[in-house]
Amino acid sequence: MNGDVPIGQLFSQLVDDGKRYARAEVELYKAKAADKAEPVKMAAIYGGAAVVLALSAVTALLVGLILALTTLLGPLAATLIVVLVTFAISGGLGYLAYKQIAEARR
Length: 106
Prior knowledge:
Elements: H1 7-73, H2 75-105
Helix pairs in contact: 1-2
Protein name: Phage holin family protein
Pfam family, one: Phage_holin_3_6
Transmembrane segments: 44-70, 76-98
């Protein structure tokens, strides 16, 4: 070890090296996060499109059910039956979701 360098200067150099190391680590993790962000963004886009298409298909199915039942029951009764059954299914699923959240809170 060189005895000509004062301890204060060595300590200052150590602090500067530590700061540079920390900055390099932050930059590394930023680069890793940016690398993973693109596939996640694309997955969100594809997933969103899938949900929109699935909801469109459900809407088409419900309209088809109303039209099919209209020939048997009339338009008002067919609409009411489809809406009530849909609300019942939705309420049941909502209740199941509520129970799962309540269980997760325990």
